[in-house]
Amino acid sequence: MTSTAQPLLTSDYDYHLPENLIARRPLDKRSSSRLLYVADGECQDLQFTDLLDLLHAGDLLVLNDTKVMKARLHGQKATGGAVEVLVERILPSTADTPANRALCHVRSSRSPKAGQMLSLADGQITAEVLGRQDNLFILSFAKPILADLDKYGQMPIPPYFERDADSMDDERYQTVFHNPTKSASVAAPTASLHFDQSLLDKLRDKGVKIAFVTLHVGAGTFAPVKTDNLSEHIMHAEYAHLPAGTAAAINQTKAAGGRVIAVGTTVTRTLETAHLHRIDGQLSEFAGDTQIFIYPPYEFGVVDCLLTNFHLPKSTLLMLVSAFAGVDTIKDAYAHAIAQQYRFFSYGDAMFLKCQKKCLIVN
């Protein structure tokens, strides 16, 4: 899948992207994006709806059903200084602590200290700073926060959009198949944003099976790798769940000779994490945090084909797709996409990477 001499420097995964190719708003129709088909070292320019021709009866399409929280809040510290809060993860309740604490990114001219109070959303939400956990703040809200986020928060669109979220983002920065009970992500599984219900129905009618996993995407997905050597990078943790039914569907698909198509890097990381915990060569249900960092020369155990967007320079996501398709193949594909004026990043176009070898799970 990759050559034997693999680049282990972050600088090997850098590229120049013209500003005008960053898609800061979505197209009018989800499935009207372009699709770059990359197979056997060749690039073919398609439309996203051509996915119907690339997938076959018996293939299994795996999607991430997480829901994006309206996780961004603005307000003031008790001293009057402006503050921006991005809720990264709502902490579970315990016998000693209620379900009103969260790990948050906090931006202000001066970092708030433990014991300081924050007034957010025009005073509708109050929070106390309890302390720090690594680069995140532990905030205690006056009550469980999820309902208030949905009412007063803003959709946490990526920083490279260089604008505030609006009502359009409330719909379009959310997949059409998200599970409303799984509101915990602070970024969308963006490869899934291209699917509308009509395309999903046509795939099912063709005999393509569809199954779901859950990975709650953290803000770390946008962070560039800051270490020079990839082996020194510490991956952020995200909660992932491979349900028993999806695990069984993957095992059955493999046994029947079908392909497993991961929609996005979040699905890929979930499936490959579960592969590390397989039992007797078979996938089984997995639930827990994952910090899997996939970069060349990683050997994939589950994913046969990958549907993904175009990723930020020096990002762990670019390293993942390079591990899957080969470093040189991805460099050539990105150069082609730039030359052909593809739209990049979360609201941008997509890429379908054909498997380089068959993943049989047992290895």
What does this structure look like?
- Helix content is 20%, strand content 26%.
- The protein is of the alpha/beta class and 363 residues long.
- The model has no long low-confidence stretch (mean pLDDT 93).
Task: Give a short synopsis of this structure.
With 363 residues, the protein is an alpha/beta fold.
Radius of gyration: 21 Å
**Distance between the first and last residues' Cα:** 15 Å
Topology order in helix (H) and strand (E) letters? EEHEEEEEEEEHHEHEEHEHEEHHE
Strand content: 25-35%
Structural class category: alpha/beta
Based on CA inertia axes, which overall geometry fits?
Answer: globular
Spans where pLDDT lies below 50 across 5 or more residues: none
| Overall pLDDT score | 93
Strand order of the largest sheet: 2-1-17-16-14-3-12-13-15
- Describe the main β-sheet briefly: 9 strands, mixed
Task: List its traits.
single chain, about 375 residues, alpha/beta, nine-stranded mixed sheet, six-stranded antiparallel barrel, 8 helices, 17 strands, about 25% strand
